[in-house]
Amino acid sequence: MPYADLHVHTTRSDGCLELEAVPDAARRAGVTVVAVTDHDRLQPFDAPVVERDGVTFINGIELRVSTPAGQRVDLLGYGVDATPALEGLVEEIQLNRVERGQAIVDCVEDRLGIDLGVTVEDGFGRPHVARAIDAHPETAYDYGDAFEQLIGNDNPCYVPRDVPSFEYGLGALTASCRLVSLAHPLRYPDPKAALALTAEPSLEAVERHYAYTREGVDHGLVDRAIERYGLFVTGGSDAHDDELGIAGLSRHEYEQLGIEEIPEK
Known about the structure:
This protein is of the alpha/beta class. The chain has 8 helices and 8 strands, in the order E-H-E-E-E-E-H-H-H-H-E-H-E-H-E-H.
């Protein structure tokens, strides 16, 4: 049972869990520390680390960036104290997310001849569309079908979104966060290239513990990167529902990160 789940999403992006309900979900899972890492979204916390109903909240963010080779990867920022640069970047991304989300909704509604009844606002993502398609009584698509046949990459209603460069995104996170980690490295089309990014000194950690759904992932790739670059280890369930603690860190592993320590001035 993990002590810390450092990858949790809420309704502030594409999760199903209200932010206020996270402490109860954490207690059910026996988790003491939760990092709320909504996609491209800042949290309404007044500090990098806060306590809520007996649970330690890490103010976090998951930011998608594009590498020089064109691969898109996700960076996890922990202990956020947002600079104006990060605030401006997030605002730009959210505007693009809304425009892109509306374009996807319009395409699906036109293609299927239905009204999805969704409101496109900050934090909106494709999972919102997939859930609406699944729930609509006039479609034969379930959640997975929606991605596989309609809104997934290279499908008829897929619309790409703008993402910042790896260099720019990492710089904004480094200036605002106590630790930056590469998320779920074995999910990318080219894991080796993604892990090579951790040679960058300010990218100090990698998400080693993660609930991969496919079999045969080679954790040795991650372990070798950890040893080669002297990386910290992070981990989390990437929860988009109310089930926390599927993956995460032991207390010892979490304390090695020093996220709760006050940085020297």
